């Protein structure tokens, strides 16, 4: 291995940026994750309120 | 441990190690040893990232944290999904396209050699320190449970993990984490079911929720903002996001996991899988702790959960404090039953006040007992429940999982430490023209070195209290500076190497000043460090640009 030789000379496979399954684009997946987090926090908040002393 | 527990313990250990080594066969190049030949699918990376972060520390400490402090620790993870989205959009494609072994290699492509060397050194210090803590945590607990001397436990764990990591590399670690994480989750579900089933027959799940809530254990979200409060919604979202950005975006022990992905998409999916699964899983683990608390309302727990400290207490002022404890427990039990049976609003209010006063009293006695022995027993709460109440075989499996989870976390850490030592230090500064075989051997030597280092350092780290907090605190002293330099690299085009280098030094100075001279909660150190690095780097580049144009 030469000094500072790039890690992957095998192929360009690892830098292929394929679309995600189901939602088709990455921005849609990101929006889903952020929305999912907001829903989770809201549910945890309701849980906290419901059982607060 | 009963004979069946020992059989299950060793069977799991042998099976997992064999499986990891079998999956890693053919790891005879540097690329295979350090990056698994970039062949890993998203689910293996995702579960491995989860297992590395969960590890034994979380398994041991998290339910105990809920028992003592309630579920608010879950807020600490709220920022993580946001960080995963940001990293999936930025760091993942950048690192993949740069074709690097380490995140710090990219810093030389973007800035210069001195910035790469500085950040690599910061990583080696920070991760080196936490590797010792990460080994000490389960070693202390297992030594107490098994009745082995702490040093013997550390040496056995160290020997197994050094052998495993040196032979198998990243591929063995990642593949072994897949069944590992699945068994951790199964063990947690089993513990939860048993905690509920072991409640007295007249205590329903609804009663358990009401009692845990009355004791303030179901406090998952706190909207109140306080700089000095470790866990609230805001410190979790902002501070937690910065910590997760730094941990998953700049810490080689995590970056290396998703660099093994066979494509950018697979690496992104592994992070986003964690983004969606981590928060509910942590909520569930904390909820188990709250249910264990309810269980111990009706079944008297030991005054101290740490068996050795309990023995020490028995030789000191035991009779007096034990008498106080028995009285406080009986009062709380009676108050819990009254609260459970109270039907109308007036009776509920009266019973609630009585229960909370009794809970405060028992906490006071427990705190007095801890003062006598001078130690914390949070890490022994869940294990005390597991070893006393779970059936034969399951106890052995849980302890084996703790052992192998610790091994998995530390293997990942020493593998990443070895990678940075070899790629960013040895190959870059000392031996630039070696063969692949030479660098593979150097990687293995570095793995052995860091494994031994972790074993030695673990002996000094054994006096920390709640170890999960200790690990994150050590990280927070360094992560802010590392995060800041990557923000400069990704987003501020005009900043050069010298400005970034000075920025990192300024950021680290600001973090140590905040830690030394203020009471700001440690989750904010990452924010402070990153902001100072970016502001300093940007200001210096602006000044030099103005100077050059004049």
Task: Provide structural commentary.
The complex is a heterodimer of chains A (53) and B (550). Chain A is mostly helical and 53 residues long. Chain A has one helix spanning 26-51. Chain A starts with 25 loop residues before the first helix and ends with a helix. Chain B contains 21 helices and no strands. Chain B has helices at residues 3-23, 30-35, 42-69, 80-89, 91-98, 103-110, 113-146, 150-197, 205-214, 233-250, 252-259, 264-298, 307-314, 318-341, 345-373, 381-389, 394-430, 436-461, 467-491, 497-517, 525-549. Chain B is globular. Chain B starts with a helix and ends with a helix. The relative contact order of chain B is 0.18. The model of chain B has no long low-confidence stretch (mean pLDDT 88). At the A-B interface, helix 1 of A face helix 2, helix 4, helix 5, helix 9 and helix 12 of B.
Decide which structural class fits the backbone of chain B: mainly alpha
What's the multimeric state? heterodimer
Q: What profile does the largest beta sheet of chain B have?
A: none
Q: How many distinct helices of chain A? A: 1
Beta-strand content bin of chain B: under 5%
Would you report the number of β strands of chain A?
A: 0
Greatest interface by residues involved: A-B, 33 and 58 residues
Mean pLDDT of chain B: 88
Structural category of chain A is mainly alpha
Largest sheet of chain A: none
Helix content of chain B: over 70%
Computed Rg of chain A: 21 Å
Gross geometry of chain A: rod-shaped
Helix content of chain A: 40-55%
Low-confidence segments of chain A, given as residue ranges, are none
Please report the distance between the alpha carbons of the first and last residues of chain A.
64 Å
């Amino acid at each position: 291995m030469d000094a500072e030789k790039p890690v992957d000379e095998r192929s360009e496979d690892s830098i292929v940026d394929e679309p995600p399954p189901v939602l088709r684009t990455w921005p849609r997946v990101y929006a889903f994750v952020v929305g999912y987090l907001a829903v989770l926090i809201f549910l945890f908040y309701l849980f906290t309120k419901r059982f607060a002393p | 441990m009963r004979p069946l527990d020992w059989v299950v313990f060793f069977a799991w250990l042998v099976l997992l190690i064999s499986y990891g080594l079998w999956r890693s066969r053919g790891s005879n190049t540097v690329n295979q040893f350090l990056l698994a030949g970039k062949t890993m699918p998203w689910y293996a990376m995702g579960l491995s990232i989860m297992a590395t972060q969960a590890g034994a520390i979380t398994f041991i400490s998290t339910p105990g944290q809920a028992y003592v402090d309630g579920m608010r620790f879950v807020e600490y993870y709220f920022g993580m999904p946001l960080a995963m989205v940001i990293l999936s959009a930025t760091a993942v494609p950048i690192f993949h396209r740069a074709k690097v072994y380490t995140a710090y290699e990219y810093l030389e492509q973007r800035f210069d050699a001195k910035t790469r060397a500085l950040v690599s050194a910061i990583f080696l210090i920070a991760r080196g320190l936490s590797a010792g803590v990460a080994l000490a945590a389960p070693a202390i607990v297992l030594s107490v449970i098994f009745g082995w001397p702490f040093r013997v436990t550390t040496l056995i764990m160290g020997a197994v993990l050094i052998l495993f990591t040196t032979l198998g590399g990243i591929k063995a670690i990642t593949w072994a984490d897949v069944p590992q994480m699945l068994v951790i989750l199964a063990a947690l579900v089993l513990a939860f079911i048993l905690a509920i089933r072991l409640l007295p027959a007249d205590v329903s799940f609804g009663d358990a929720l009401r009692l845990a809530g009355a004791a303030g254990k179901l406090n998952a979200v706190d909207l109140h903002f306080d700089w000095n409060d470790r866990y609230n919604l805001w410190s979790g979202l902002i501070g937690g996001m910065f910590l997760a950005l730094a941990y998953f975006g700049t810490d080689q022990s995590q970056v290396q996991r998703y660099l093994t992905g066979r494509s950018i998409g697979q690496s992104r999916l592994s992070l986003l899988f964690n983004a969606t699964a981590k928060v509910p899983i942590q909520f569930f683990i904390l909820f188990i702790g709250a249910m264990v608390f309810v269980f111990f309302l009706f079944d008297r727990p030991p005054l101290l959960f740490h068996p050795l400290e309990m023995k020490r207490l028995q030789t000191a002022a035991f009779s007096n404090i034990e008498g106080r404890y028995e009285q406080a427990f009986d009062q709380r039990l009676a108050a819990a039953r009254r609260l459970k049976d109270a039907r109308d609003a007036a009776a509920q209010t009266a019973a609630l006040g009585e229960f909370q006063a009794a809970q405060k009293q028992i906490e006071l006695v427990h705190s007095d007992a801890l003062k006598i022995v001078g130690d914390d027993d949070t890490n022994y709460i869940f294990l005390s429940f597991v070893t006393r109440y779970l059936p034969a075989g399951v106890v052995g499996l849980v302890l084996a999982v703790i052992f192998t989870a610790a091994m998995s976390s530390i293997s990942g850490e020493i593998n990443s430490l070895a990678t940075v030592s070899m790629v960013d230090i040895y190959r870059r500064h000392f031996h630039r023209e070696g063969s692949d075989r030479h660098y593979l051997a150097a990687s293995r030597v570095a793995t052995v070195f860091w494994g031994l280092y972790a074993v030695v350092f673990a002996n000094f780290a054994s006096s920390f209290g709640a170890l999960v907090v200790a690990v994150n605190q050590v990280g927070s002293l360094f992560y802010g500076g590392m995060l800041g330099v990557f923000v400069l690299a990704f987003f501020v085009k005009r900043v050069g190497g010298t400005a970034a280098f000075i920025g990192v030094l300024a950021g680290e100075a600001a973090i140590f000043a905040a830690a030394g001279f203020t009471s700001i909660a440690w989750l904010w150190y990452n924010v402070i460090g990153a902001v100072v690095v970016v502001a300093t780097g940007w200001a210096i580049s602006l000044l030099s640009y103005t100077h050059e144009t004049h």
